[in-house]
């Protein structure tokens, strides 16, 4: 059991400092989540400017991989060294990386700096839910976990529209610079008001476990993102990386089973509440990031709306998430903590929403799309606060930091795996559909290399300049140039829509797995006190 220097712990803080601590936590969550939703809307424009359609998902995946690796490491370190220094360090890294991302001029540069951003975001994410569990007992956490989730969703409401507006009126570079003033405010707030509570007894750091986990996660996610797109599934790079993942996984389990202070205690795997929660969170992330990441591409690429309008269309989903998260958190604290029933309701509602998204096409009505997104967001919001509280309630306080950090870790891993699969699926499905359905009359006029370039990167759906160039070429090359251009554009839209439908089908399958897993979660009453463990 960890003991603390004066003050005894977060639990004994005066009310004023608790309020200021919570404000700092909420602002940090707002900043990190606002960045993600702003970027989502701008990605179609970014990949067009930097000619990076093949790396579409890597702008997000690099961020998520880095944050996924960072979360459990920081969660464990905060149990050893305290929360404050890691929170402030994460904010500083995030802010500096935001500036570097805005200065990027190539896709590799942006991907690297987004990864560094993810390290800072992971440190902030690991601390946010841990601090709430430090201050409040399990029976009260639902209200505050729901509040944090609502702030996350609130930033997601503001983010898409703000990101679209900045992208349209300034440039996508400025979506990263907006983090600088927020970061400075957070650093000041945490520096002056966040309590610096440190354990008296420090455990050993599991360096070997950290290395094995980091290498394994990177190998798996790079393999999945390459497979089916950049390389065939049966190829040396893909199989080699999967082999590295299996080797590192074996090494990690061996190291953790013999470590005096493991990064992720293997005893957690034997806890049914934790193992089921991990499974549900992992597969729920598929549906979450399928909608958040690819719907802006559908709006801008298939429906042809501006980035600003695209952001506005994402808003109903985020409003649904805010509402669902708030209701779920309140019910969890006030109605007896029935996370089993609430989780099943949320997953079923989210599954219905994603099912409706599998039916979208260039002819789909806006009403259908908005209903789909509201249901997806509302169901996701219901599930968001549940599993963190469920796992916290099932372990002693001495394991709180590392256990809490495993929930966002599994969400990040699920999102990364999902995005890797989605990215390779989108590239291969789009190319196959476009090549098979492009009218012969268009093929006869456009140069073969131009057709191949469009099959690999449909930037003309987002770039009006590219559209104008292709249209002028067709008009000069054929008397039917305008009709040929319309046929080409329609084929591109249909191919992209088909690829996105396939992505949502995969997401729906993942959610079905989450629903099945939810049947097996064990529900125990939420503790009304912290306990002395």
Itemize the secondary structure elements and their pairings.
Elements: H1 15-49, H2 58-81, H3 84-102, H4 107-135, H5 138-169, H6 174-177, H7 179-193, H8 207-226, H9 236-258, H10 272-302, H11 307-334, H12 339-357, H13 366-383, H14 386-392, H15 400-437, H16 440-445, H17 448-456, H18 464-477, H19 481-518
Helix pairs in contact: 1-4, 1-5, 1-7, 1-10, 1-11, 2-4, 2-8, 2-15, 3-4, 3-7, 4-5, 4-15, 5-11, 5-14, 8-9, 8-15, 10-11, 10-13, 10-14, 10-15, 10-19, 11-13, 12-13, 12-19, 14-15, 15-17, 15-19, 18-19
Give a description of the structure.
The protein is an all-alpha fold and 533 residues long. The chain is built from 19 helices and no strands. The chain has helices at residues 15-49, 58-81, 84-102, 107-135, 138-169, 174-177, 179-193, 207-226, 236-258, 272-302, 307-334, 339-357, 366-383, 386-392, 400-437, 440-445, 448-456, 464-477, 481-518. Helix 5 runs antiparallel to helix 14 and helix 10 runs parallel beside helix 15 (400-437). The model is unreliable at 1-8 (pLDDT under 50).
């Amino acid at each position: 059991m960890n003991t603390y220097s004066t003050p005894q712990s977060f639990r004994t803080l005066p009310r004023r400092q608790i309020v200021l601590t919570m404000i700092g936590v909420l602002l940090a969550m707002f900043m990190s989540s606002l960045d993600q939703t702003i970027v989502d809307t701008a990605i179609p424009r970014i990949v067009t400017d930097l000619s990076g359609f093949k790396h579409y998902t890597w702008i997000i995946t690099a961020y998520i991989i880095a944050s996924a690796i960072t979360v459990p490491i920081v969660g464990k370190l905060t149990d050893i060294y305290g929360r404050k220094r890691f929170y402030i360090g994460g904010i500083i890294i995030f802010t500096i990386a935001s500036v570097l991302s805005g200065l990027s001029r190539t896709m590799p540069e942006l991907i690297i700096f987004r990864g560094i951003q993810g390290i800072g975001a992971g440190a902030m994410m690991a601390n946010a839910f841990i601090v709430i569990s430090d201050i409040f007992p399990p029976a009260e956490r639902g209200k505050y976990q729901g509040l944090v989730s609502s702030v996350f969703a609130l930033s997601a409401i503001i983010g898409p529209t703000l990101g679209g507006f900045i992208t349209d009126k300034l440039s996508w570079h400025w979506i990263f610079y907006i983090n600088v003033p927020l970061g400075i405010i957070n650093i000041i707030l945490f520096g002056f008001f966040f309590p610096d509570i440190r354990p008296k007894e420090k455990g050993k750091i599991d360096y070997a476990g950290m290395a094995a986990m980091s290498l394994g996660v990177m190998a798996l996610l790079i393999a999945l993102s390459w497979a089916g797109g950049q390389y065939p599934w049966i190829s040396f790079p893909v199989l080699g990386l999967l082999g590295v993942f299996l080797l590192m996984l074996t090494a990690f389990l061996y190291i953790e089973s013999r470590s005096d202070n493991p990064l992720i205690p293997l005893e957690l795997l034997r806890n049914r509440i934790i193992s089921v929660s991990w499974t549900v969170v992992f597969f729920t992330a598929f549906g979450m990031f399928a909608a958040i990441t690819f719907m802006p591409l559908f709006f801008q690429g298939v429906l042809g709306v501006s980035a600003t309008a695209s952001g506005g269309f994402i808003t109903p989903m985020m409003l649904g998430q805010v509402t669902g998260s708030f209701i779920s958190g309140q019910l969890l604290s006030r109605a007896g903590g029935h996370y089993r029933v609430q989780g099943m309701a949320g997953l079923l509602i989210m599954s219905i929403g994603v099912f409706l998204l599998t039916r979208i096409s260039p002819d789909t009505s806006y009403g259908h799309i908005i209903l789909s997104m509201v249901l997806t967001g509302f169901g996701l919001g219901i599930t968001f606060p549940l599993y963190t509280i469920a796992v916290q309630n099932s372990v002693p306080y001495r394991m709180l930091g590392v256990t809490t950090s495993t929930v966002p870790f599994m969400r990040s891993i699920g999102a990364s795996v999902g995005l890797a699969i989605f990215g390779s699926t989108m590239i291969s499905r789009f190319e196959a559909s476009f090549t098979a359905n492009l009218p012969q009359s268009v093929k006869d006029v456009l140069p073969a290399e131009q057709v191949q370039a469009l099959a690999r990167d449909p930037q003309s759906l987002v770039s009006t300049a590219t559209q104008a160039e292709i249209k002028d070429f067709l008009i000069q090359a054929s008397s039917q140039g305008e009709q040929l251009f319309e046929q080409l554009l329609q084929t591109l839209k249909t191919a992209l829509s088909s690829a996105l439908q396939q992505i949502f089908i995969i997401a729906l399958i993942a959610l079905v797995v989450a629903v099945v897993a939810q049947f097996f979660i064990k529900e125990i009453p939420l503790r009304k006190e912290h306990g002395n463990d």
